[in-house]
Structure formats: C-alpha cells, structure tokens
C-alpha cells in the first residue's frame, strides 16, 4: 500500500463504514477550525476598523496640544491639555516654516447656537483654515470649503455639515444663504458630505468657520490645537523636533506643548488589538486540540473494533509501516475534511458578520487560516499516531483469533 | 528441494511464571506440491506450527527455511513481503472485511503489494472466475453464503499465486456440503501444484491429505503417508 490513492480509498471506505464515528470527529474538527477562523476574523476586523478610523484622521499627522504632561507618550491627560501658556495663530504660522511640513491647520472648537428663520440648533463650531479639508481627508459635498484667506482675517463665511443643513434648511437650497451663529451672520459657502465620521468629529453635524471668526465668536486668542502634516512618514520625527524647538523659542524657552504623533497612537491600538486577535485565535486553537484528543479516542476505539481486520491485513502482507499509514491516513483524511468543513463554516460566519456589521471588515487573516488548517492536520496526525502504533504493534495471531 | 524445512524449531510462551512449550523440537520437511494435514487436539501446537510456517509467528530457536531461504530472522517488513508473495491464508472465520465487496477483498493483497490498478483488476477478475464468483464480485460479505464467503477468501489467498496455501480449519464454520465443496476447491488447487497445508481436528478432513501429521504437546507424534479416501 505504498500508493497514496489506495490509502485514501481504503481510509475513505473505513470512514464511510462507520458514519457516526466519522461525523463526530468531523464535527469536532470543523467547530475548532470554524471558531479559529471566525474569532480571528472578528479580531482582525476590529483592528482594521480602528486603523481605518485613524487613517481617516489624515496621514503623517502630528497634533500640537498646549500644555505638557511630565510623562512622555500618549495618555488620556495629554488630551485634556492643561494650559499654562496658550497656542496662538502666530505660533501656528511659525510652524509652516519648515520644508518637512506640508500643511498646518489651526483649530478652535466651541459650541454655539446656529439659527435661521427661527430654527435654532446648538452645534459644534470648528474654527479652522482652508487646508483642513485636505489635511483631514474630508470631502465637500456642495460648494467649497473655507476660502484660502489670511488666517488672521475674520470672514463671515460658513461651511455646514449635511445634517445641520437638513435641520435648518430642509428642502430649501442652502448655498449662498445666510444664517446666524450666536449674534453674527455668516453666508453658507459649502456643505460637508456624508463622508462619514472620523474619530471625535461627526463631520455632518458640525459647522466650519474661518479660525479668526471663531476666535472673535468665542472671544479668545488661543487655539485648541494645531494640526501639522509632515511631507512623509520619515519626516515625522524631524517635524516633531521642529515643532518643539519653534514653540519653545516662541514661548521664552519653556517646553509647554505636547506633540502627539498619530503613529504612536495608532501603533498602540494596533498592538492592543493585534494581541486581542492572537489571544482569541489561541483560545479557539484550544478547541482544535480538544478535537485532536477526540480523534485519538475515536481512533483507539476504531483500532479495537477492527482488530481482526488489522490481523488480516498483516496476514495478507501488510508491514508495520503500511498499518501505520492506513490509520494515520484515516485520521488525516478525517481532519482535513473536518478542517475544510470548518473553513467553509468559518468563512460563511465571517461573511454573516460582515453583513450584520458592515463597518467591521471581518476577514480572517491568512496566517490564522493557515495556522488553523495546520493545527487541524497536525493534531490529526499527532493524535492518530498512538492508536496507529497500537494497531501496527498488534500480534497478528492474537488479532485474528479475536483474543 | 523442499519448499518448507523446519529444523529443531522451538516455540516457547511465557504464561505467568511458567514456560509453555507450544512447539518442542519440531523438524519437518514439506516438498513443493505436497498436501499435508496437521491434526491434533486443542493445545497440541498445530495452530502455532501453522502460524510459524505462515510467518505470523517466530521460532524461539531453530531454523525455518522457506524456498531455500532462511527466514527465521527476517525483519518485520521482509516477513510481510514474503508472506504477501509466498503464502496464502484461509481462515475458519473467513476474515473478509465487511465493508468491502468480494472483489475489493480479493484485491487487498495486491493493493498491499503495490501493484498497478490495471493489473490488479485483471488478476482479481481471473481469480474470481476460477472460483465461479464472477457474478458475486460486487456483493458485500453479508450478502454471500458461508460457502461463497470461504470461496472469496480462497480467491484472496490465491490471487497472488503463492507457493504455499495455509488453511486453518477451512470447513469449521460451514455446513457439510459447503465444506466438501471448499475442500474440493483446495484439493483442486493442490492438483495444480500449490503446496497445501490444512490444520484441522476433523479426522475425516485430515485423512484426505497425502501426508498426515499428528501433534501432541508441541511434538510431532506421528506422520502417516497415503490417502485414505479416494487413494
């Protein structure tokens, strides 16, 4: 029985000869593989979702926050930005003076009443500049974004989110119309589309005005943040140095800003979610091991059920190796069929997940699929080895006489 | 030259703290084409002798020469190959694999030998035809009568054209008429040159053999020559 085809055919016959046993093992293997595939798909989906969210923030982005936390790196308190000395528009302007910097966008955030013809809505107001659109990879649905004017010039123009437009204008055209923010009048020049939400900002539910107008509106000189886009990924560290040095020089030598690189945040999330994927995959792999042990059990029963057959095969001229091949082959056939079934179930499950939660790109990573199949076949072979060896070691005389 | 030669063969089993001498200094020569029966009561060592001749068991001491080759100390694989090529077994309980058809059962030794599929088909068909089983080729064992099952087993034992055919109580599970048919088939094969060795405690069957070996307590008690039934 040196021929693979013969072994497969014989094993197939033996499996279909004991269907309930075969189905049981198939089921165990399939559940194991399916759970690995589905759980890693889920973990990977979550990871890619978060990564996508970060990418929509903009690429090669650095965020300058007033105030400095003593501990370096990223932690929630840095986001709060306790301010000894505020950032100003002039600070932002100064940051543009580097070759590694592509764009700089100052940012002011506040909340104010936006009204038109008696309809009033409390809305988040973003004061920023023309470059913000490109920097954050936003898209305009209608009209234009804020015009490229001098940053310190207040201009009564506004870009509104689509949701704000619906609430205030309904079916009427909004472009070119006037509305009020607080007690000031602004003319609508653009409408932000349904590009979606990026972390922290629901683009459709926000109103955008020039940064100087926002400063007037909120009666402040300071900025909430400055966003800086580096020319390339490799330019991020020099830009970070440039920002710190420039602002230190402007703030009488005090290092009073925090620079968060998006990479650092992303890497942290990526690490956490990657670890999550590995661990759920690992937990699922335990079920594969359990399936392997079940295979061993069932194969042991098979060996004692088929003692006479083993004795016969020996009498007909099967050697140790051939008997081993028959039983290991049988287990391998079973586990590969089980793994295949599990793979199909797992992929269908991931598909269902994607249908149910479209934002979650739940695709099982290639390594997880390969590992699941590998572990399935590995445990199949490993755990069938003991029963197969027992079969091969049977004394043909005793086996044939049914002793 | 004898096809089988045993020289002072001993086979001891350890049972508890006692050593049982299943075969005690057995020397035997069997010529090619011989028809030999081995008789004796249970525990006389006749099955042990058959298993030893069939290379399913090993001698504790002594020598076994098969076809001029000393096979006493062959490796497991060499033993298996020799068994496959030289020896055919017919068992009392038939030992057909229940999930395989008659043809597939007959094919087993050829499959183990690694023969190409075409050659196997041809040999299986020929073997089944010789035993008038061609119309039963696709039947499973449970669809066959006892006599037919034993004929399938004989087809399987002879499909490799072995030099020696070993039959262990071949009629033990059969009614008288089927048993007689099977014996006649075996004797017919012997007539065509195969060396036939039958183990039985059925005196009537044993006496049909050209040479009769009577065993007792692991020793050959006596050897009788000549056929008693149809001379």
Describe this structure in words.
The complex is a heterodimer of chains A (403) and B (231). Chain A has 403 residues and is of the alpha+beta class. Chain A is 55% helix and 19% strand. In chain A, strands 3-4-11-6-8-7 form a six-stranded mixed barrel. A two-stranded antiparallel sheet of chain A has the order 2-12. In chain A, strands 9-10 form a two-stranded antiparallel sheet. Chain B contains seven helices and ten strands. Chain B has a six-stranded mixed sheet, with helices on both faces. In chain B, 34% of the residues lie in helices and 29% in strands. Chain B is of the alpha/beta class. The A-B interface holds A 1-3, 6, 10, 13-14, 16-17, 308-309, 311-322, 396-397, 400, 402 and B 47, 51, 54, 56-57, 76-77, 79-81, 83-85, 89, 91, 93, 95, 97-100, 104, 108-109, 111-114, 156, 160.
Task: List the total number of helices of chain B.
Answer: 7
CATH class group of chain B:
Alpha Beta
As for the number of domains of chain B, it is 1
What is the makeup of the main sheet of chain B? Answer: 6 strands, mixed
| Order of the strands making up the biggest sheet of chain A | 3-4-11-6-8-7
Portion of residues in beta strands of chain B equals 25-35%
Terminal CA distance of chain B: 25 Å
- Share of residues in helices of chain B: 25-40%
Identify low-pLDDT runs of chain A.
none
Q: What Rg of chain A is obtained from the alpha carbons, in whole angstroms?
A: 33 Å
Beta-strand residue fraction of chain A: 15-25%
Summarize the SSE layout with pairings.
The complex is a heterodimer of chains A (403) and B (231).
Chain A: H1 4-17, H2 19-55, E1 61-66, H3 76-80, E2 87-88, H4 89-95, E3 101-116, E4 119-128, H5 132-135, E5 140-143, E6 157-161, H6 162-169, E7 178-181, E8 184-192, E9 197-198, E10 201-202, E11 206-210, H7 211-218, E12 222-223, E13 225-230, H8 236-250, E14 257-261, H9 262-305, H10 307-315, H11 320-356, H12 366-392, H13 396-400
Parallel strand pairs in A: 4-11, 6-8
Antiparallel strand pairs in A: 1-13, 1-14, 2-12, 3-4, 3-7, 3-13, 5-8, 6-11, 7-8, 9-10
Helix pairs in contact in A: 1-11, 2-9, 2-11, 2-12, 9-12, 11-12
Chain B: E1 2-15, E2 18-31, E3 35-39, H1 46-53, E4 61-66, E5 69-70, H2 76-86, E6 87-90, H3 102-113, H4 117-130, H5 146-158, E7 164-168, H6 176-191, E8 195-199, H7 203-206, E9 211-216, E10 219-225
Parallel strand pairs in B: 3-8, 3-9, 6-7, 7-8
Antiparallel strand pairs in B: 1-2, 1-4, 4-5, 9-10
Helix pairs in contact in B: 3-4, 3-5, 4-5, 5-6
